[in-house]
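Hi W.,

Here's what went into the run:
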Amino acid sequence: MKITRCATAVVEANYDYTFVRIHADNGQYGTGECFFAPGLSAALRDIFPLLIGRDPREVDRIARFLWRKGSGAGAVAGYLYNAISGIEAALWDLVGKSLGVPCWQFLGGKVRDEVRIYVDCHAGDNTESWDTMLEAREPAWLKAALQGRPQHEERYEPEMYYNRAKQMVEAGFDAMKFDIDSIVVLTGEELNRPLTTAEMDRMAACVAAARQGAGDEVDLTVDCHWRFAPTEAIRIARALAPYNLLWFEDPCPPENYRDVAEIRALGIVPILTGENLNRRHGFWDLITHRGCDLVAPDIQKCGGMLEAKRIGELAEMQGIRFAPHNISSPLGTMASAHVCATLPNFVALEFHGSDVPFWQDLIVRQDVPGPVIKQGRIPLTDAPGLGCELNEQVARKYAKPGEKWFE
Ligand code: MG
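Here's what came out:
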C-alpha cells in the first residue's frame, strides 16, 4: 500500500478547522484534523512530498520520521505538531478503512462504548470566531447568528452563567465548563497584579450562579487561560472551593509546571492543565512530579492519536486522570473520542462548538444517524477508521476564502 496524494481544506468556523486528506493506491483515503496555526496549510504542503510513496500502514514510523524531519522547526514542541497530529489521524482513518477496523481497535480496544462530552460555555455566550492569531473576525454565518449584536460580548453577569448552565442541562449535558479569567480584563488591564475584592466577588458570584443553574448533579469546571500568578490562583481556588468543581483549569502559565504543582499540592480543588503541550516529553515533568490532577492534551496538536494514548497511560501510572482539550470540528472530535474510549482514566472530552450553527452537520456517520453528540455522549461503533466522513456539501459552504479545497 502506498500514499499517492495529500491535500488540505479549511473550514472557517469559530476557529479554522484544518483538514488533511491522504489518498492511497488502493483508491481509499483518510481524513484527519489539525489544531489551527498561522501558516499551517503552507506547512502541510511542505510536508506532503515526504509522504508520497510511503506505506500508510506504518503510522508510527511516519510520525517519528516527521518529528525528526521537523527538528529544525521545533524538535520537541511547536505548531509543526499540529500538522503532524492531523496527518497521523488521517493515516489511522485510512488504515482503518482499508482493513475494515475502527481506530479504537488500534489503540488497544475500547473500554467504554460511548464517550462523555463536556460542553464549553465560555462566559455565558460563545457566539464568536477567531483567526489563527486569536483576533476576532466575522464570517457571514457569524453575522447571521449574532443578529446585529456585537461579537464576544463579555459581560460576566451571574445571570448569563445561570441561564447558560440551565440551557446546557436541558440540551442533555451533565458536564460543563465556564471561563472566569477575563473578568479581570474588564478593568482594561492585562493581569499581572493582585486581584481586587470586586473581581474576586464577581468570579465567585458567576460560578455560584452556574452551579445553581446546573444543579448539584452536574459536573462543573472553570477555565483561567493561564492568567494568574500562583498567589492569585490560590485565592481564587479558595473562593471557588464551595462550588464543588470537577476541576480548575490552567490557573497559571504552562511554561513552568511547578506553578500549578504548588496549587495542586494544597488540595483545595483538582487542577487540570496541558492543552498547550506537545508529545509525552511536554507532559513528562508535569506527570512524573504529579503536578496536576487531570491532563488535557489536545489530540489535534499533541502529536497524534497514538501519542495522546501514551500520554494518557503515563498519566494513569501517576493516578492522574485524562480529559482532553478539544476545539475541533466533529471530525477531530471523533478522532479524540476514539482515543478516549480506550483509556480507563478518561473523564470527559471537550465540545467547543455549541454556538457554531453547522457544527453537528459537518460529518456523516453512516451507522449513527442524527446529531454527533446525543445527550452529552458520543457513541462509538464498529464502523471502520474514524467512523465518519466529512459532509462536504455542508463543509464547503464554510470554506475559508483563499484556502484550497482538497486540491
Ligand atoms: Mg482551556
